């Protein structure tokens, strides 16, 4: 039970974002114009043509691997910069961090953004609400300069958390979340950070790529605007998106030992860096456990000595087989072992959703291509 509790506390895997449609936020120009501040603001923030005509080629943000359960990097917001650690989450679209207006335990234990200490901050009256599986946040939207790796995004809209109910975020080592999914699922219509990078010509290519290290090793990163071909020596398999919401794709089936065990008639899946485990429909989970010879009532706990005898779980996607070996889907911690599968029913118009979290992503270098609406997977050696 200690292992299960720790996984629930430190990982974003339990936190599937539930978006609530709210009013679309006003643009920065509209907000400033309404308050008679636009002319003065433009004088203080001249448009930098160099960013448009001489964009950065690429910029890598290193990420810390915490117990193979969460990966987070450092960004800065404001002038002078205030630093925050964030999850780079392909399963959501909003950027938010705790603010000084928040007194919830989840805020007190983390860095909090102070608008009064930033000369470039512009506030709004627009509210923000995001609900997760084990927690939520409410706050207000504001604009300020955001720096990710070497890329500086001017006037990025972001959330300033005013409440973080419950205790979940108190246990997380990261401060906030930077969403990398599509604008269509952004709460309050806020423009995602990567969309601004693209529109402002700050990346050479409209894509980013992710490498997640194994066994708590260093070296994890998210690379904006480029593909590091040192990680693609096994070739890249390109998969078209089935929806421009999450990074959603169609799976053909899931098989074990050459036999389909789930998703036999096809199903939908999202590639989600903000989820630690493999989240699957409950019925599919029971089928997978049965095929692996694990009791349904075991909560996925197994003997660590059994790892060597377990088969690969193979995800058949777009005509290619993507195997996840037992050393990847069995999680060992404090002398105990459990399967890295979690049952969770997430209904969509096309059926229940599978979530290919970090357990899957660690086996592949993943390219998230906005220009062509595709996901690229390259098997890591």
What does this molecule look like?
This protein has 381 residues and is an alpha+beta fold. It has two domains: 2-221, Cathepsin D, subunit A, domain 1 (Beta Barrel); 231-379, Acid Proteases (Cathepsin D, subunit A, domain 1). 15% of the residues lie in helices and 39% in strands. It has helices at 2-10, 28-34, 38-44, 49-53, 105-108, 193-199, 282-292, 326-329, 358-361, and strands spanning 18-19, 59-66, 70-77, 82-89, 95-98, 122-131, 136-148, 151-163, 176-179, 207-211, 220-224, 237-240, 243-244, 247-251, 253-256, 259-262, 267-271, 278-280, 301-302, 313-317, 320-324, 330-333, 336-339, 341-343, 347-348, 351-356, 364-369, 374-379. The strands form four sheets. Strands 13, 14, 17, 18, 24, 25 and 26 form a seven-stranded mixed sheet that branches. A six-stranded mixed beta barrel has the order 3-4-9-5-8-7. A hairpin with a 2-residue loop joins β7 (136-148) and β8 (151-163). It is globular and about 65 Å long. The protein starts with a helix and ends with a strand. The model is unreliable at 1-26 and 44-57 (pLDDT under 50).
Which keywords apply here?
disordered N terminus, 2 domains, Cathepsin D, subunit A, domain 1, 381 residues, alpha+beta, seven-stranded mixed β-sheet
Model regions low in confidence, pLDDT < 50 over at least 5 residues: 1-26, 44-57
Oligomer: single chain
Rough outline: globular
What structural class results from the helix and strand content?
alpha+beta
Largest sheet descriptor: 7 strands, mixed
Instruction: Tell me the number of helical segments per DSSP (H or I, 4 or more residues long).
Output: 9
| The CATH top-level class label of the largest domain | Mainly Beta
The helix content, as a percent range, equals 10-25%
- Domain count, please report it: 2
The number of distinct β-strands equals 28
Overall mean confidence score, pLDDT: 85
Topology-level CATH name of the largest domain? Cathepsin D, subunit A, domain 1
């Amino acid at each position: 039970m200690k292992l299960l509790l720790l996984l629930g506390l430190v990982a974003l895997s339990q936190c599937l974002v539930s978006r609530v449609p709210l009013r679309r936020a006003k643009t920065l120009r509209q907000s400033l114009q309404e308050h008679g501040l636009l002319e003065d603001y433009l004088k203080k923030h001249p448009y930098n043509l160099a960013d448009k005509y001489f964009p950065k080629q690429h910029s890598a943000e290193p990420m810390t691997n915490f117990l193979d359960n969460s990966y987070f990097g450092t960004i800065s917001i404001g002038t002078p910069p205030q630093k925050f650690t964030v999850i780079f989450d392909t399963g959501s679209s909003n950027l938010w961090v705790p603010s000084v207006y928040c007194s919830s335990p989840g805020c007190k234990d983390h860095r909090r953004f102070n608008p009064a200490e930033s000369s470039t901050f512009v506030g709004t009256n627009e509210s923000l609400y995001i609900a997760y599986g084990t927690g939520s946040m409410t706050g207000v939207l504001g604009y300020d300069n955001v720096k990710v790796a070497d890329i500086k995004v001017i006037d990025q809209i972001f959330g300033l958390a005013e409440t973080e109910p419950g205790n979940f975020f108190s246990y997380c080592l990261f401060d906030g979340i930077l969403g990398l999914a599509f604008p269509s699922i952004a709460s309050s219509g806020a423009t995602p950070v990567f969309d601004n990078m693209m529109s402002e010509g700050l990346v050479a290519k409209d894509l980013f790529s992710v490498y997640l290290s194994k066994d708590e090793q260093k070296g994890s990163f998210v690379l904006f605007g480029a593909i590091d071909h040192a990680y693609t020596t096994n070739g890249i398999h390109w998969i078209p998106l089935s929806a421009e919401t999450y990074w959603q794709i169609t799976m053909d089936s899931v098989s074990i030992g050459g036999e389909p065990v789930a998703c036999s008639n096809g199903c939908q899946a999202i590639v989600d860096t903000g989820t630690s485990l493999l989240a699957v429909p409950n019925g599919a989970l029971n089928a997978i456990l049965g095929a692996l010879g694990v009791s349904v009532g075991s909560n996925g706990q197994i003997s660590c000595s059994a790892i060597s005898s377990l088969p690969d779980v193979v995800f058949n996607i777009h005509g290619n087989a993507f195997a996840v070996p037992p050393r990847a889907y069995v999680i060992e911690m404090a002398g105990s072992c459990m399967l890295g599968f979690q049952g969770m029913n997430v209904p969509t118009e096309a059926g229940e959703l599978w979530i290919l979290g970090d357990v899957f992503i660690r086996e592949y270098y993943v390219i998230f291509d906005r220009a062509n609406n595709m996901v690229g997977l390259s098997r890591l050696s």
